[in-house]
Write a structure and sequence with these properties.
The complex is a heterodimer of chains A (244) and B (325). Chain A is of the alpha+beta class and 244 residues long. Helix content of chain A is 28%, strand content 27%. Chain B has 3 helices and 21 strands. Classes of the chains: A alpha+beta (244), B alpha+beta (325).
């Protein structure tokens, strides 16, 4: 039996439901189960659900929740807590698994050598440890389609770069503190770049635009530079075909 | 079609924003002064959510290939149509081939140009808003440049034989008086501020830092300190959330804010004041006041009622025009 979530008003038009305070796979699974449950209720006046590590933000249309005391955000929070209390205790299983091919180093991960030295590991060891773990997509945030992954081996925790890069190439696989993630397109960023995937993870012209979704399981598969180029050519062709 | 002759400092296509995609990291974007964009749309005979051009600090020069009806609301500007001064806050007839020059904005930061029928760029993920920070949306996800051509759906729009003599009184909708305070609800971490910081939040005059943009307003002033350090896990944030980074200079999140954030949430701008956030210029003074949930709700209802009244008034005036009065 899990403790009931706690509601925090984010001003007068949003509510943050807390399921815990830490980065934890079981707590995150409850967040995604709650998001699915609330989405399925199709309540009027709920305009946005934003799952994160240990919380679910709910943006509301206050006009739909208005009508004397309490104020709309408080009224909505109470309704959401009631709905979750009445919901069957979801196991929040991470069902879908996505495999992400990654070429570690080889010009695709400019920080790999320094990262390995810092962790006291040989370069192939770091890559093998990173690819061996079973990850869970905790949330998409920072930029469209950017996945924050749970499950990084504690031996691979690395401080962020002292000076963030202004341009991180699209597809870069990176470690920032206790987290690992993938830059879905060229962005500024301060994480350690250890490899790159040739997959186009986010394309606003596709439906859905994101290939990776919060709540998924994710595994990395190490590939060679030749495989990277072959896969990249396939991705380019698919993108060109879809816009043609 | 509209041709951009001169883009101005930062002009972009915006509507009321992109909803329903925050879970994949795609934020709302949309007009910074959403009410001014709505009013311009209503005056041009459009729905509130039609796409408009958001103009920032220095205005663009635009050539209209076809005759159109436009309306301009928001910041004060020296508006010229083919060299002649024109007024904002009313429907304005524009002849084919005319050039609208919006000049520099004198007071306020953002001006909205609505065109009858709307700017007809293709929507991306359900919205015509350009998210400049995320490089997402129509117009390649970027601000306008000289040489850009914007399609119009003018055949659907309001047609004017001549520009009416009336205009809306802007005072209710545009008030850049720096002495007027933006109103906040306390956030979860307000109680963690040192007592002096709690006081400073309501007594200090903050300055809008030059690096403020559509992502957020950075507030300069005496550093606000927490009574103990907080280590937070990133969580969803919303437009108007006032975050406090370790340096002590708060950031008030705006239209293009990231969907999640990990800084302490000391306060949140109330719904009734969201549009005013869009009219602060870098260097402006900003004062804040905390209110309770009941006052915030009363202010929200009052603002919504005032908007509904002015919408009704505009509809009546446009009906007179359409009936040839």
């Amino acid at each position: 039996m899990n403790a009931a979530p706690r509601a925090e008003a984010l001003g007068d038009s949003a509510v943050l439901l807390h399921f815990g305070e830490a980065i934890d796979a079981a707590v995150n699974a409850r967040v995604h189960a709650a998001a699915r449950h609330i989405a399925a209720l199709q309540l009027p006046g709920i305009v946005e659900l934003v799952p994160a590590y240990a919380s679910l933000a709910v943006q509301l249309d206050p006009a739909c929740w208005s009508g004397g005391a309490p104020a709309p955000a408080q009224r909505c929070a109470a309704a959401l807590l009631d709905a979750l209390a009445a919901a069957p205790e979801a196991r929040g299983s991470f069902s879908t698994t996505i495999e992400i091919p990654v070429c570690y180093g080889a010009g695709f991960g400019p920080d790999l050598d320094a990262a390995a030295a810092r962790c006291g590991l040989a370069v192939p060891e770091l890559a093998a440890l990173h690819a061996a773990a079973d990850y869970r997509v905790a949330l998409l945030g920072f930029a469209p389609g950017f996945p924050y992954l749970l499950g990084l081996d504690p031996r691979l925790h690395l401080p962020r770069l002292a000076t963030p890069r202004t341009r991180v190439p699209a597809g870069s696989v990176a470690i920032g503190g206790a987290q690992t993630g993938i830059y879905p397109r060229e962005l500024p960023g301060g994480w350690n770049l250890i490899g790159r995937t040739p997959l186009r993870l986010f394309d606003a012209a596709r439906t859905p635009p994101n290939r990776i979704a919060a709540g998924m399981r994710l595994r990395f598969r190490a590939i060679t530079a030749e495989e990277f180029r072959a896969l990249q050519a396939e991705e380019d062709k698919a993108a060109a075909d879809s816009t043609a | 079609m509209i041709e951009v002759l001169r883009a101005g400092l930062l002009s972009s296509v915006q509507d009321q924003g992109r909803r329903g995609h925050a879970a994949i990291g795609v934020g709302r974007a949309g007009a910074m002064d959403a009410d001014a964009a709505k009013l311009a749309n209503w005056l041009a005979g459009n729905e509130a959510d039609a796409a408009v051009i958001e103009i920032t600090l220095s205005g663009p020069a635009l050539r209209f290939a076809c005759a159109a009806t436009v309306a301009l609301c928001g910041a004060e500007a020296e508006l010229r149509l083919d060299g002649e001064r024109i007024a904002g806050w009313r429907p304005q007839a524009v002849a084919a081939g005319s050039v609208l020059d919006c000049g520099g904005l004198r007071r306020g930061a953002r001006l909205y140009l609505a065109v009858a029928g709307g700017i007809a760029v293709a929507p991306v993920l359900g919205s015509r808003s350009v998210d400049i920070n995320a490089a997402l949306g129509p117009c390649e996800g970027r601000a306008l440049r000289a040489g850009d051509r914007l399609p119009l759906a003018a055949e659907d729009g309001l047609r004017l034989r001549r520009t009416p003599a009336w205009s809306l009184a802007p005072a209710l909708w545009f008030d850049p008086d720096p002495q007027r305070r933006l109103r906040l609800l306390p956030g979860a971490h307000y109680a963690e501020l040192e007592p002096e910081a709690q006081q400073a939040l309501q007594t200090a005059a903050f300055r809008i830092a030059p690096e403020s943009n559509r992502v957020g307003l950075r507030l300069q002033g005496a550093a606000l300190r927490l009574s103990r350090p907080l280590e937070l896990v990133s969580a969803g944030v919303t437009r108007g959330t006032v975050q406090l980074p370790p340096g002590g200079q708060p950031i008030m999140l705006a239209a293009e804010h990231p969907t999640t954030g990990g800084y302490p949430r000391i306060a949140h701008l109330i719904e009734a004041d969201q549009s005013r956030l869009g009219q602060y210029r870098p260097g402006d003074s900003l004062r804040l006041r905390l209110v309770g949930t009941d006052e915030a709700e009363a202010l929200r209802v009052r603002r919504a009622q005032a908007l509904a009244r002015v919408h009704h008034y505009i509809e009546q005036k446009l009906l007179e025009i359409r009936c040839g009065a």
